Amino acid sequence: KHQRIVFSGIQPTGSPHLGNFLGALDNWAKLQQKDSVTYYSVVDLHAITLPQDPKVLRQSKHDMAAALLACGVDPKQSALFEQSKVRGHSELAWIFNCITPVGWLGRMTQWKSKIEKSHTSHAQALLETSTSAGTASLKMGLFDYPVLQAADILIYKATHVPIGDDQIQHLELCRDIATLFNNNTKSKYFTKPEAISPPSTKRIMSLRDPSAKMSKSDPSDFSRINLFDEPKVIQQKISKAMTDGHKGISFDTENRPGVSNLINIYAAVTNKSVDDALKDMNGLHNSQQLKQAVSDAVISRIHPIQSEYVKLQADPSYVQQVLKEGAAKAQVTADETMEQVYKLMGL
Ligand code: ADP
Ligand code: NA
């Protein structure tokens, strides 16, 4: 009998959006099953790889925890906790830092794109200096965070990690680090975790630029639907979503990315295949009508989550208690792992 151990984390920066919900959080709730142990973390140590205001960060962590509970994370079934409250995450990351070659991290495409972005934003400065100037201003933690992610996962000996495509390379790194640790310590201590990837209909693109994924870090608020946007705002955002000049409604991600994204959103919130979603749209003739249908479907899907969130926000001490108990639960496993890891390393 195989027991599934699941770990996943979400950064507490910004409001969760529809992409986070459909691509990740909804699945977190579904993964809470009898034969599974589930660890869900608000990953504040990852958040500080970029500058944060302490007051804002503290509140954002609370809000994200409330959001996770509203999305169906059940504290009776899962350990829901703040990453920084379980010390083992940082401790194991340090051990991994001491065995992981710098080159492995330099290969990470997310890092490379961050360097490129920093080059663009500091283009002027870089005209006069070497290309390494952009890298020099980026923080060690931002370079190194995939190692912390490996620690997040391996400290619970997670067997399954729900992730989006954007994180596949980091999970690969985690698997490599597990192997490296085993080889270095002549042990079989860590087992390699598997990815659980959401179906493509659950990958939600930006409403303004359907070639980019919907993201918290997009500066335009009209690019995303936040989970706690009011119905009126949701309607507005969807009505301004980028579509195209083609007639009618058809699913064609290459030539009609905007329309296809809306159809995908509809399919995802109604738990239907794209084909079945298109059947629902038989009577619709233009993107205006499509937008109305998508907007209605989104609003009715997230309405119960929004009501639950309001209730949870009225009881902050409950949320804090959940986080405290979650950390205590996670800590037991984390401590056991660290004890073994220290022993294997001769510490
Ligand atoms: P963001 O880019 O908004 O900061 P995160 O990187 O914090 O999102 O991702 C949190 C979780 O949500 C991850 O599991 C990620 O794969 C998932 N996710 C993020 N954006 C999307 C999206 N647009 N569609 C589907 N899933 C997404
Ligand atoms: Na992110």
Q: Could you please describe the fold and organization of this structure?
A:
The longest helix has 30 residues, at 316-345. 55% of the residues lie in helices and 7% in strands. α1 links the parallel β1 and β2 (36-42). The strands form two sheets. Strands 1-2-3 form a three-stranded parallel beta sheet. It starts with a strand and ends with a helix. The chain has 347 residues and is mainly alpha-helical. The chain folds into two domains: 4-198 and 316-345, HUPs (Rossmann fold, 3-Layer(aba) Sandwich); 205-309, Tyrosyl-Transfer RNA Synthetase (Orthogonal Bundle), CATH 1.10.240. The structure holds adenosine-5'-diphosphate and sodium ion. Residues 11, 217 line the site of sodium ion. Sodium ion binds next to loops.
